[in-house]
Write a structure and sequence with these properties.
64% helix, 136 residues
Length: 136
């Protein structure tokens, strides 16, 4: 039996590389290699993100203004659509009412306004009495 103990060397496992059975390089060289590998890895990861620019307050305000404009346009379209639907329903009810009365002529809201104006004109003509000029 020998009295000599076997010499155990420390083995540092470098991430991304396979451990070798006997790495006889000095610890300094192995740590330098590990640092270099980490630096290269970080550089590769950050290389793609350098082109991505973050948004500042002015950019955010612009984007919010664009979104608000889009929402306003959508609201206007919805309001206009609702108005047209109500108007179409009113025209439909008017047509149904005129058909129910047996009238062939369809009365539109514009015709109603014209009828009211002509009625007002005739009333005003009859209410205004012109003075007769004395004959000389």
């Amino acid at each position: 039996m020998s009295l000599v103990k076997p010499l155990i060397t420390s083995c540092i496992i470098i991430k991304g590389s396979e451990p070798t059975e006997s790495d006889t390089r000095p610890l300094y060289d192995r740590l330098q290699e590990q640092r270099l590998n980490l630096t290269n890895q970080l550089f590769e990861e950050s290389r793609d993100t350098k082109w991505i620019r973050t948004l500042d307050d002015q950019d955010l305000q612009f984007l919010e203004a664009v979104e608000e404009t889009k929402r306003e346009r959508e609201r206007m379209v919805v309001d206009e659509t609702e108005r047209l639907v109500k108007e179409a329903a009113m025209v439909k009810r008017t047509r149904e009412a005129t058909v129910a009365l047996g009238s062939e002529e369809i009365v539109s809201p514009l015709n109603k306004i014209k009828a009211i104006e002509s009625t007002q004109k005739t009333l005003l003509k009859s209410a205004i009495v012109k003075k007769n000029k004395p004959k000389e």
